[in-house]
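[Discussion] Sanity-checking designs against the backbone

I'm trying to build intuition for which residues belong where. Below is a structure token string of 198 positions. I'd appreciate it if someone posts a full sequence so I can compare it with mine line by line.
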């Protein structure tokens, strides 16, 4: 069994430094082969910050995990304007697939799934973090409407594009080697009305 990494020394940090240190602490803890203690005290100790700072900012370990995952996905899945709804959705899904294929990405998504049980407060904190991802999907839909396209509803995108990707990651089911984003987007858009032409 490899020794655990030492906790970072506690020095005064700015809010963004605290966030960065906490995010890195979560990644480090998840990478430990003997299993991760993702309690707020453990995260705070590894990050070298006071646990009260973590409680004040996030409220629960589930919200911390959701923030780490969402931030990573925002970094790895920028909103690319390809000029069409189909292209935007494929580009968004391809970036998500690339992130899921990394060991770190799989660890984070499974950790969030394991943290899901909890009361209404914890669920609300997680939902607040994931609203940032919902907003990116809505941006794709709004861009499509501005072009004269008719996008699927948010629920359809969640059920037919996002859920298949992340359910595979949660249960450790390999993604097809190629073409999976195109396949999912094709199925999603098959019932979507094409834009009217003059």
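Best answer:
Here's mine. Compare freely.
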């Amino acid at each position: 069994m490899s020794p655990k990494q030492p906790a970072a020394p506690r020095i005064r940090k700015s809010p963004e430094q605290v966030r960065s240190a906490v995010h890195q602490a979560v990644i480090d803890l998840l990478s430990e082969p003997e299993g991760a203690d993702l309690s707020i005290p453990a995260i705070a100790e590894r990050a070298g910050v006071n646990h009260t700072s973590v409680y004040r900012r996030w409220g629960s370990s589930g919200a911390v995990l959701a923030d780490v995952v969402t931030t990573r996905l925002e970094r790895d899945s920028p909103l690319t304007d390809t000029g069409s709804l189909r292209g935007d959705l494929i580009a968004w899904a391809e970036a998500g697939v690339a992130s899921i294929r990394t060991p770190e990405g799989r660890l984070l998504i499974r950790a969030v799934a394991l943290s899901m049980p909890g009361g209404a407060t914890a669920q609300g904190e997680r939902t607040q973090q994931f609203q940032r991802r919902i907003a990116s999907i809505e941006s794709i839909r709004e861009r499509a409407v501005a072009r004269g396209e008719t996008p699927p509803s948010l629920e359809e995108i969640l059920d037919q594009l996002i859920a298949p990707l992340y359910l595979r990651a949660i249960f450790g089911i390999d993604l097809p080697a190629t073409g999976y984003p195109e396949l999912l987007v094709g199925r999603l858009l098959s019932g979507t009305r094409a834009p009217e032409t003059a």
